[in-house]
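Standup, Tuesday
Yesterday: got the pipeline producing structure tokens again.
Today: sanity-check two examples.
Blockers: none.

Example 1:
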Amino acid sequence: MKYKLVIFDLDGTILNTLGDLCAASNAALQEFHLPEITLEQTQSYIGNGIRNLLLQASNYSEQIDSIVEFFKEYYWYHFNDFTKPYEGIQEVFQFCKDKGIRIGVLTNKIEEIALPLIEAHFPNTMDFVFGEIEGRTRKPNPEFLLSIIKRYGYTEKDVLYIGDSEVDILTCKNASIEGVFVSYGFRTKNQLLQHTNCIVDSALDIITCLGE
């Protein structure tokens, strides 16, 4: 196989988390008497962490620290109310396992939420799950991604990254690794085409990118 390690983004790539993110955002906004946002707005704000989402959702409120804390407390109990895997993604994981390709998740989602989400939907599937924790660099900074590759004894040429956003595209460029980006997630195909031509329209199409 061409690739020995495939790393996936989480939100908008393997799990559709939009409903729960929107609900938690609006619960936080309501708490601070701010206007709610739509699913479409939530989708456009996702990709660079919760704080960035809520900054935009709150119109850069001076209360952002409190809004973020409320969001985290609410989301902890409601992170899996509406979240579902994207169609075909389980088959992609199984293909990788059958071919001996190691798989894992690198996300800007808070790690203490990413871990139970992955366990709930894909138990005993991932070789690793890394998310946002204090002191760890976040995408599109390539530092931690490159440390994962080194940790497992691979080179950049052994790795394929699967994502759905401009942040993921930039991460791949910064790390000098190949990427494939899905148009079924939180960015439209036209939005992705402004940055890359390496686009697939369904999860099963990822398999064709893995090579023999």
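Example 2:
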Amino acid sequence: MGSKAQGNFSSLSMGAVALTVIVLAVLEFGLVLALSWVNARYDQAIGRPPLRRRYPWHSSMRGEREELIAQRQGVSGVERIAILMVVAGVLVFEFWFFFLAGSSLPNS
């Protein structure tokens, strides 16, 4: 979108940068909404009760620890997807780095 708004000018315009930032923000917001909807449907399909977010200032100082609450709730579908994507990204990067990138040192 930003390249289309830029046109044939040789210098970068702030309008193109602003449009790119706005488009990325809208896309990110849409993806967050879609991911939270998919997570809610997944929780509903497996019978998990809805996750209640507890902010630290709403809980008692002698209340349950977050680790115990997390153990009871388990890992959500969104967390599983995020973990798998990070692991896949690291593995692809390592494959590229060790096998495809080549050496940046000069040949002498």
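Quick observation on example 2: The chain is about 65% helix and 0% strand. The helical segments are 2-6, 14-46, 66-73, 77-100.
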